[in-house]
Design brief:
The longest helix has 23 residues. Strand 12 and strand 13 form a beta hairpin. The strands form 5 sheets. The protein has an 8-stranded mixed beta sheet, sandwiched between helices. Helix 7 crosses helix 8 and helix 12 packs parallel to helix 13. The protein contains 16 helices and 20 strands. It starts with a helix and ends in a 19-residue tail after the last helix. The protein is of the alpha+beta class and 480 residues long.
C-alpha cells in the first residue's frame, strides 16, 4: 500500500481516538517505571501485584480473538503487553484494536506477570495513546536500496536498529570517561568562541559568515587552539575543550565538514610527558568502555597494552615509501608522488609532498597504536623544534587502525620565532592572529598540547567503517 494511503487511514484513526474522548498527544504521562526498571524489579512487583504504568513505542501487534499481545520499547528496553477484551471491556478493547498501530507511542497501566512461555509481560487494565504515528515504520529497513537513507533519517535508523542506538550510547560513554580522566588529572574544561574573527589554529579552509550587529565578517572555528593557549598565558595551567569545529574541505570516511574535537593544553609539560599521559588515559578508557585493552577494528585485532611503539616520520617513509626525506630533493619527492599516482600541483610545498606520500604509503599500514614523532619542522609551525635537532619538530601523532587520532607537540612559546614562522609559511595577513602573538609576548609557560578527533576515536572503538556511522546527523548531499 502506498504511504499516502496509509497516512489517510491513520488520520481517520486519529479522528476516531479524538471522538472517543482521548487526546492523542497529551502533555503529561502517568509512567511510573521504565521498562528496564520494571524488568529489574519484576519479582517484587509481580508478587505484590502492584499496578504500574509503562510507556513506549509499539513495535509488534499479534491479535488472537479476544486477546492481543504487543511488544513495545522505550529508551531502556523492550517488553510485552497483554490486552484482553474481558479485562478492558468490549468497546475499550475494540477502540484499541481498530485504531492503534505499530509505531504509535502508548501508555499501559496494569500488573506484571510471566506467561507460560516465561516471557515477562504487563497485563493492561488501562491504556492511553501518547503519540499517534501518522507514517508507518519501515518493514525491511536493511533491505532499502538507498543505504544513505539511514543517515538522512537517523530517527528511523535509531528506531529500527538497536545496534545503531548502542553505538551512540557508547559514544556518550566514551566522552564521559574522557572527561572523567581529564578532570581527575586536574584539567579544567572550558569553552572558547566558535565564531572567530580570524580562522586560526590550523590552515584548513574555513566557513565564513557575517555578524550584522557589528557589520563584521566572522568564521566558524577550524580549531580552538589559539584561544586555549591564551588561557595558559592567563595562568590556567591545565585546560581542555570538547566541541565542534568546522572545515570547508573534502568529505570521506574520515572527514566531515563539522566534527567534534578535543583539545588539551598542559603548562610545564612537554611532548614526551604528554605521550605517557595519553597511554595511561587510553588504558583506563578502554577498560571502562570495552572491558579490555584489546579491540577489533575492521578485521584487525588491536592491543593497546603499553608501551606503544615510537617511530620517526623519516623512518616511516624510508620503511614504506623507500624515500630518505633527509636527502631527497623536491624533484625526487615529486617523482615518488607521481609514481604512487598522487595528484599534486605544480608548486606544491615540500611539507605537503611528504605528507601526501606518508598518507598513501605509511598510514594504511599503521594498525597497532604508534606514536609517529620528529616530523620535519616545517610541518608544524606551532610546535617547538627538538632541542637536539632544530630541523625536526617536537611533535607526535597517534595513529591506530590507519586513523590519525591525535596530533600533539611541545608548544612554541617564543613570540619572535612564532611571528617568523607565520611569515615563512606565508600565512595570509587576515589569518595572522596578531592578538595571539601579542599574548605570547606577555609570556606563555612551556607547555604541551594535543588535538583528538572524537568522531574518529568513536569509530575506532565501535568498529565503524565511516564517521557517518558515529555522527548522529552527518552532512549529506541534498536529494535531487
Amino acid at each position: 500500500m502506498a504511504i499516502s494511503s496509509i497516512k489517510k487511514i491513520r488520520l481517520k484513526k486519529l479522528e476516531a481516538i479524538k471522538a472517543a474522548g482521548q487526546n492523542p498527544y497529551p502533555a503529561k504521562t502517568n509512567r511510573t517505571h521504565t521498562v528496564e526498571e520494571a524488568l529489574l524489579q519484576f519479582e517484587r512487583l509481580s508478587r505484590s501485584e502492584t499496578p504500574i504504568f509503562l510507556a513506549g513505542r509499539v513495535v509488534s501487534i499479534r491479535e488472537h480473538g479476544g486477546s492481543t499481545f504487543i511488544h513495545f520499547e522505550d529508551g531502556k528496553g523492550r517488553m510485552q503487553a497483554y490486552f484482553k477484551e474481558d479485562k478492558l471491556g468490549k468497546n475499550n478493547y475494540k477502540l484499541f484494536l481498530d485504531n492503534f498501530d505499530i509505531g504509535d507511542i502508548v501508555e499501559i497501566g496494569g500488573v506484571l506477570f510471566e506467561t507460560k512461555r516465561g516471557e515477562k509481560t504487563i497485563e493492561a487494565s488501562s491504556y492511553r495513546m501518547l503519540t499517534k504515528a501518522l507514517l508507518p515504520l519501515p518493514e525491511k529497513w536493511h533491505g532499502l536500496q538507498d543505504v544513505e537513507e539511514r543517515f538522512r533519517k537517523r530517527y528511523l535508523d535509531l528506531i529500527m536498529n538497536p545496534e545503531v542506538r548502542e553505538k551512540f550510547l557508547m559514544r556518550s560513554r566514551i566522552v564521559e570517561e574522557l572527561r572523567n580522566a581529564f578532570n581527575s588529572a586536574g584539567f579544567m574544561e572550558v569553552e572558547t568562541p566558535i565564531l572567530q574573527p580570524i580562522p586560526g589554529g590550523a590552515l584548513a579552509k574555513p566557513f565564513k559568515t557575517h555578524l550584522n550587529a557589528l557589520n563584521l565578517d566572522l568564521y566558524l572555528r577550524v580549531a580552538p587552539e589559539l584561544y586555549l593557549k591564551r588561557l595558559l598565558v592567563g595562568g590556567f595551567e591545565k585546560v581542555y575543550e570538547i566541541g565542534r569545529c568546522f572545515r570547508n574541505e573534502g568529505m570521506d570516511k574520515h572527514h566531515n565538514p563539522d566534527f567534534t574535537m578535543l583539545e588539551l593544553y598542559w603548562s610545564y609539560q612537554n611532548r614526551d610527558g604528554l605521550m605517557d599521559f595519553i597511554e595511561d588515559v587510553f588504558q583506563e578508557l578502554l577498560k571502562k568502555t570495552k572491558g579490555s585493552t584489546r579491540l577489533s577494528y575492521q578485521g584487525n585485532d588491536i592491543d593497546f597494552k603499553k608501551p606503544w611503539e615510537k617511530i620517526t616520520f623519516a623512518a616511516l617513509l624510508k620503511k614504506y615509501a623507500e624515500v630518505d626525506i633527509d636527502k631527497a630533493s623536491n624533484a625526487e619527492l615529486a617523482a615518488t608522488a607521481k609514481k604512487l599516482k598522487i595528484k599534486i600541483g605544480k608548486n606544491i610545498e615540500r611539507c605537503k609532498l611528504m605528507d601526501e606520500i606518508y598518507k598513501e604509503t605509511c598510514r594504511p599500514k599503521m594498525i597497532k597504536p604508534i606514536f609517529m614523532i620528529d616530523h620535519p619542522a616545517e610541518m608544524a609551525i606551532l610546535s617547538k623544534p627538538k632541542a637536539d635537532d632544530p630541523k625536526k619538530a617536537d611533535r607526535f601523532q597517534l595513529v591506530v587502525g590507519g586513523i590519525e587520532l591525535i596530533n600533539g607537540f611541545s608548544e612554541l612559546n617564543d613570540p619572535l620565532e612564532q611571528e617568523r614562522r607565520f611569515k615563512q609559511a606565508k600565512i595570509e595577513n587576515e589569518r595572522k592572529d596578531k592578538d595571539f602573538l601579542e599574548a605570547l609576548q606577555y609570556g606563555m609557560p612551556p607547555a604541551a598540547g594535543l588535538g583528538m578527533g572524537i568522531d574518529r576515536l568513536v569509530a575506532l572503538l565501535t568498529d565503524s567503517h565511516s564517521l557517518r556511522d558515529v555522527i548522529l546527523f552527518p552532512t549529506m548531499r541534498p536529494r535531487k
